[in-house]
Amino acid sequence: MARRPARSARPGPSSRSDGSDRSAAPCPCGLPATYGACCGRFHSVGSGAATGVTPPTAELLMRSRYSAFAVGDEPYLLRSWDPATRPPGVDLDPAVRWTGLEILETTDGTPFHTTGTVTFRARFTHRGKPEVLSERSRFSRHEGAWVYVDGIVAE
Hints:
This protein is of the alpha+beta class. Helices cover 13% and strands 32% of the residues. It has two helices and four strands. The protein has a four-stranded antiparallel sheet, covered by helices on one side. The longest helix is centred in the middle third of the chain and has 14 residues, at 58-71. The two termini are 14 Å apart. Residues 2-12 have low confidence and may be disordered.
């Protein structure tokens, strides 16, 4: 998923803006699990230390990256980006609220592959206005873990 303008001052991925624990909430990626049991297990903990658990497929990496955008986890977004294409930072717009993810197609990207693609549609609101981001993302393995390489945004 591409960068968004304006840096966010959101709380960390394990806490909500009201100070409560996010891990028991439904996962933003849409799978039927809590955030803590789903994408949260891949994200950073506390001061940004890695959990040591990585998504086993390109689709789960895509879902975890969507959830990282939803919870404002910039360290995870950067850590899960291919070093060859990774930007110096991700500007998370505090006016964006991610509201749903739909996986349209996956190609390869299983534990037995080294590359894969995921085509998705991500719904969000920007300043209250509903919008949609459609992208075909490319993933590859880097040091054994799936990483986001780049994506083609559909108009």
